[in-house]
Amino acid sequence: MQFDLIITNATLPDGRTGMDIACNQGRIAAVEEAITAEAREVIDAQGQLVSPPFIDPHFHMDATLSLGNPRMNVSGTLLEGIALWGELKPQQSIDDIIARALRYCDLAVSQGIGAIRSHVDVCDDELKGVQALLEVRRQVADYLDLQLVAFPQDGVLRDPTARDNLIRALDMGVDVVGGIPHFERTMQAGADSVRLLCELAAERGLMVDMHCDESDDPLSRHIETLTCEAQRLGLQGRVTGSHLTSMHSMDNYYVSKLIPLMVEAGVHAVPNPLINIMLQGRHDSYPKRRGQTRVRELRDAGITVGFGSDCVMDPWYSLGTADMLDVAHMALHVGQLSSRQDMRWCFDAVTVNSATIMGLEGYGLEKGCRADMVLLQARDPIEAIRLRPARLAVIRGGQVIARGSRETTMLDIPGRPDRVDPADYAPQEI
Ligand code: FE2
Q1: Does pTM top 0.85 for this prediction?
Q2: What's residue 421's pLDDT?
Q3: Residue 285: Cβ within 10 Å count
């Protein structure tokens, strides 16, 4: 039999080496040590890492690549970012959003991202972002899974038309119910918004993903209500709390009660390390809080944690390259996840964990999974995070859709080597 594609001599994220992966009709047909069969294309991985694609479980594709338009965020705070986005929204057309989003998708695919969960702001009576991203979702479907969250940026209760707009967005085909309880006018309104939105999701059989407690206020406890509603409405495994930065500042005793309740309710967590290390602690003098949620404690309790990128060149964050390894790199540092085991887990948090959170079908490198993967110029997940290396091949449905390479640097210093490659600097065995 002839396969569509065979990758030979791959190292897998779980540490297996010398593996061959055969792909047929869009699926993985075999993962074995020596596959002797014909294939239309054979890629020799040369012992480098083959991973299932990177997954970004939290992004804002309606705002991406809008940096500087109409102005920059001077204070660097979340709240100025929201105000700035409010200035940009009426100025942009559906075509503007589509063009920027498609351009971002090109970048994302080139970096080996296979799926993105994007929030889309529904606080716009014309629902321009929703119309645009539904069209983008259709256009990119062959090469990127785009899952959309109806996100009431200005508060589903605080904004007078947000609730109706959110329901219209869901009727139009947006996949997931979003929210932002810490931006509602009062703690009570925040709790009411969580209840209302979870009931809406339960009625429609949808998942929930809320911006939840993206605040340094230790008393911002909407995650408690979100957890309670997930439990009450039978939404276990289908609810995600994004950001959860207030947990960084919460009282330890309270957290010792909260985390087990989250476990019981099957709530997932999505920290966004690049953005929150930039935005949080802006009102602190010194010491400044890091503002990343309690990643280690959530993970150790058994909660599924996936890292999101959140923003690339928009009102909240002026950098970014769509590289989920940048995201893992930052999370690792801020969370002090420095053991070998912890670093390997950070790779899981930008791949398999986020696929679980998004409910992706057929994700992984087992026989029968979708033949989606990325070949990295690194020998293992830890080296991948350290180097953030070239994506030598990005594969979707058994077809190569992107090929990358990393240029090396040549030295011209007497007595020193000609060529410097960061990949040569790691010890071979640890
Ligand atoms: Fe966000």
Answers
A1: yes
A2: 81
A3: 6
